[in-house]
Amino acid sequence: MTDKILLLREYPNLLDQIEFDYVFVEERISDYPLKFSQVRNKKVEWGMRFPIFLESFYDYVMKNQDIPKQLEFFKYYLSSNTVFFSENRLGEGIMEGLKARIYRTYPSLVRDIHFALFLKSKIKRGQVIYNQRLDVEEGIDLIIEHGGRYYAVNLYTDTKRAYAGRDRKNYRHTKYSNVNYLELPVEFRGSKSIGNFFLYAEREMKKLNQLFKSN
Questions:
Q1: How far does CA 39 lie from the centroid of its chain?
Q2: Which member of 34, 153, 183, 192 lies 3.0 to 4.6 Å from 142 by CB, making a disulfide possible if both were Cys?
């Protein structure tokens, strides 16, 4: 079996297309409201395939050079996937469950883009790369090129639900032979908080540096 090799030239770095930095993200979200629903529709959570949330999120970011609010993101997701929703007439219960699921997912999307931009500004001897295809197709949240080596950084909260999702994600993907995979589970307790958001920042970068040293 031939080794699976990562060729970064095949994956443009979307961070190079973002005109703002992590400080801008913190300033923008400092007064953003967050609302969550207790609704969990089983069909929405486990039984249906929807257009990928993060694709609409990054499409909004690139087009507007801004971070959407929670409701703005939901509305943009619907408007950017009109073909899907016109072909699939979904009932009120499904749409309510979908909105609840998107609202729960939204803070993690903000957290991830903030941390990517944070690392980009802090890591001087290396390159931080985010690419949607690597995320969706290969299960890699970030690639860091450091000292001529590639590190895949996988971020998730330290919860049973997140670990279950991480296990499913790992099972679906064949790993690259020239990439070191680093798992970075994070507890919200002790995280940096801005407004209603918990963010990855200095503490998580220290953990990442420890992982670099051990690898």
A1: 22
A2: 153
Separation CA 69–CA 72 (nearest Å): 5
pLDDT band at 178 (very low <50, low <70, confident <90, very high): very high
- Please state, in angstroms and rounded to a whole number, the distance separating the CA atoms of residues 41 and 117: 34
In three-state form (DSSP H/G/I as H, E/B as E, the rest C), the secondary structure along 98-142 is HHHHHHHHHHHHHHHHHHHHHHHHHCCCCEEECCHHHHHHHCCCE
Question: CA 198 to CA 184: how far, in whole Å?
Answer: 16
CA distance 103 to 43: 17
Widest CA span in the chain: 52
The token pair at 174 is: 């064949």
Cβ–Cβ under 8 Å, residues 149 and 180: yes
